């Protein structure tokens, strides 16, 4: 890093530059910067105009909403005044049996008949007491089950506005259907000396509200306005028919829960702004919807101008690029091509042509690569030596305790005249030592490692007088894979000393060695049915500093896990499962690399060859 820094400093302070080439480059750079600034300025102006257009649209929409809100409130107030006049001047003053009651209702109806469809007074059981205009009531309209009646009786002190519906109470002989909005309220009805609860119904003509909303929906830029109640039920919508048929949608539930203000909404993937105003007395929401295209339609001409300006700028930039490429680009591209070839492994001489600055840069890169090659070789050599030292240090932890015990056992057999057993022990020990030495190799085939485990367990079974059984279930396809030597012996040793070694022959102590191919990996499992341990203890066994030296070789499971990870990487190694009085299972996992002299050498030198079948 220091050498590279010195080279960069030398480049910045190098001699022999060509001022004319640098001046030309600066002139061209200023020209390009000027063009970029012009383009940036245009974009900023475009953004400001777009923002101003959006603000203007919002202000116009807010103004329209405010005017419509006042118009609707005035209209609804006039209808409420009709209801108040009937309630306070007629119903509370006249008895239900008084003929003047119907006359007064008729007079009030006549004064506002352009906005009204009917006025009706019902008692608490739904019977009609009086109505205007005087028409016949339909047979059994079931008044008490209708929403306006139930709402009025439930909220006695309030005037209730319904959603638009077809008036179905009276038959005027014309067989016309009137769309109305009902104003209902609970009233006290005089019936002789008694006062009873009743319901006053004022059906206002829906066409009045519809006309107000139709006027504000005459815009042609995609904006529209609708009216809903506090529950999200539509009162007016320019696409109400399509919405009722399911061919269009509207987020009325979202708008109904909003207070007055401006909000952003998304409907069927389209972003839009919505403006909300609350209609007094009713809780209705007057909503203005502004789709994004409503903003863009105002700035189409500006977009055309920006596009034309951008095309002109592109043509100028193309001309500037041709001017610059002959002076600077060509030698830099040649230098880049030679650097890419060098990085690809061809290692050609770095091209140094063109202006002095480019030539100096080429020389600096050449020297840097040469120094990097030297440093990389040193680092690889140091890493391999360090890795080998770590592995050798782990391997050297195997103490001769087992060997001493085996030789002592052979001595006792010879002295006791058990020559055949002594010969068998010596034969198995020879096999074990041959594989342990393995001409200095640290990588063996799985087949050799299994044979080493067999020899070790044959010796141990003799020493322990067959107090436990050993079973092998090894898939043939894994025998020709590479593995780290001496990884099974420490695990088997632990299985004996901490598992089945202390069990009586009658207890049926068993150690099972199973090997299978799982995908691109090899998994070998050593399982015993011995004493076992808690899962917490099992999880701590593989942690550094927890190597167990009691009785055994001293290598421990941490040692085995570390050696596997040093060779194959940190994704591989050991995992342990155990349960007290049930047994312990140790899983060994490493990649399925075919055992060949080339792969053996590459693994021992720190490389990772391809897995079998990869």
Task: Provide an overview of this structure.
Mean pLDDT is 80; it is low at 1-23 and 547-555. Among the domains are: 92-208, PAS domain (Beta-Lactamase); 400-604, Heat Shock Protein 90, CATH 3.30.565. It is 50% helix and 20% strand. It has 17 helices and 20 strands. Strands 1, 2, 4, 5, 7 and 8 form a six-stranded antiparallel beta sheet that branches. A five-stranded antiparallel beta sheet has the order 10-9-13-12-11. By secondary structure, the protein is of the alpha+beta class. β7 and β8 (194-205) form a beta hairpin. The radius of gyration is 48 Å and the shape is elongated.
Please give a handful of descriptors for the protein shown.
614 residues; alpha+beta; Beta-Lactamase; Heat Shock Protein 90; 17 helices; disordered N terminus
Let me know the number of strands.
Answer: 20
* Helix content percent band: 40-55%
Helix-strand category:
alpha+beta
What would the CATH topology of the domain at 400-604 be? Heat Shock Protein 90
End-to-end distance:
38 Å
Total of DSSP H or I helical runs spanning 4+ residues: 17
**Which CATH architecture of the domain at 400-604?**
2-Layer Sandwich
Low-confidence stretches: 1-23, 547-555
For the report, how would you describe the main beta sheet?
A: 6 strands, antiparallel
- At the fourth level of CATH, the homologous superfamily of the domain at 400-604 is Histidine kinase-like ATPase, C-terminal domain
Categorize the overall geometry: elongated
CATH class of the domain at 400-604: Alpha Beta
Evaluate the radius of gyration: 48 Å
User: Approximately how much beta-strand content do the residues carry?
Assistant: 15-25%
Task: Report the average pLDDT across residues.
Answer: 80
């Amino acid at each position: 890093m220091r050498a590279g820094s010195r080279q960069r400093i030398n480049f910045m302070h190098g001699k022999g530059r060509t001022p004319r080439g640098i001046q030309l480059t600066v002139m061209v750079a200023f020209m390009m910067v000027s063009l970029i600034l012009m383009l940036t300025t245009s974009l900023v102006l475009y953004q400001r105009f777009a923002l101003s257009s959006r603000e203007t649209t919002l202000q116009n929409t807010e103004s329209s909403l405010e005017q419509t809100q006042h118009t609707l409130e005035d209209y609804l107030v006039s209808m409420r005044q009709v209801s108040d006049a009937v309630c306070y001047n007629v119903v509370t003053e006249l008895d239900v049996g008084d003929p003047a009651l119907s006359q007064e209702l008729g007079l009030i109806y006549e004064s506002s008949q352009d906005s009204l469809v009917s006025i009706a007074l019902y008692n608490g059981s739904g019977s009609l007491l009086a109505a205007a205009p005087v028409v016949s009531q339909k047979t059994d309209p079931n008044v008490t089950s209708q929403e306006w009646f139930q709402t009025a009786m439930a909220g006695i002190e309030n005037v209730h506005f319904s959603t638009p519906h077809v008036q179905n109470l009276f038959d005027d002989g014309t067989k016309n259907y009137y769309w109305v909005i009902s104003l209902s309220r609970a009233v006290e009805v005089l019936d002789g000396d008694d006062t009873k609860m009743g319901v006053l119904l004022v059906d206002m003509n829906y066409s009045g509200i519809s006309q107000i909303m139709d006027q504000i929906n005459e815009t042609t830029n995609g904006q529209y306005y609708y009216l809903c109640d506090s529950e999200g039920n539509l009162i007016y919508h320019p696409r109400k028919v399509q919405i009722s048929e399911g061919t269009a949608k509207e987020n009325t539930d979202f708008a109904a829960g909003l207070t007055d203000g401006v909000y952003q909404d998304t409907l069927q993937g389209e972003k839009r702004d919505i403006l909300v105003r609350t209609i007094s007395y009713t809780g209705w929401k007057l909503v203005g919807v502004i789709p994004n295209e409503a903003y863009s339609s105002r700035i189409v001409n500006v977009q055309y101008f920006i596009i034309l300006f951008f095309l002109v700028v592109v043509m100028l930039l193309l001309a500037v690029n041709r001017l610059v490429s002959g002076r600077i680009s060509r030698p830099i591209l040649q230098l880049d091509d030679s650097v890419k070839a060098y990085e690809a492994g061809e290692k050609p001489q770095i091209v140094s042509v063109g202006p002095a600055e480019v030539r100096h840069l080429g020389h600096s890169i050449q020297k840097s690569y040469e120094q990097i090659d030297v440093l990389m070789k040193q680092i690889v050599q140091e890493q391999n030596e360090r890795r080998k030292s770590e592995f050798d240090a782990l391997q050297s932890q195997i103490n001769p305790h087992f060997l001493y015990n085996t030789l002592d056992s052979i001595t006792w057999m010879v002295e006791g005249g058990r020559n055949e057993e002594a010969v068998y022990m010596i034969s198995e020990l020879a096999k074990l030592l041959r594989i342990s030495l393995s001409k200095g190799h640290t990588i063996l085939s799985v087949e050799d490692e299994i044979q080493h485990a067999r020899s070790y367990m044959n010796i141990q079974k003799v020493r322990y007088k067959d107090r436990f059984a050993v079973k092998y279930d090894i898939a043939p396809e894994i025998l020709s894979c590479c593995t780290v030597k001496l990884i099974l012996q420490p695990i088997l040793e632990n299985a004996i000393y901490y598992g089945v070694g202390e069990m009586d022959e009658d207890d049926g102590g068993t150690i099972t060695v199973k090997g299978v191919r799982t995908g691109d990996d090899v998994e070998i499992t050593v399982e015993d049915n011995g004493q076992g341990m808690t899962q917490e203890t099992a999880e701590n066994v593989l942690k550094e500093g927890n190597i167990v030296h009691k009785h055994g070789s001293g290598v421990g499971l941490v040692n085995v896990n570390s050696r596997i990870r040093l060779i194959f990487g940190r994704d591989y190694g050991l995992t342990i499962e155990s349960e007290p009085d049930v047994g312990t299972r140790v899983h060994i996992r490493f990649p399925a690399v075919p055992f060949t002299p080339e792969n053996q050498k590459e693994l021992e030198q720190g490389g990772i060859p391809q897995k079998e079948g990869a």
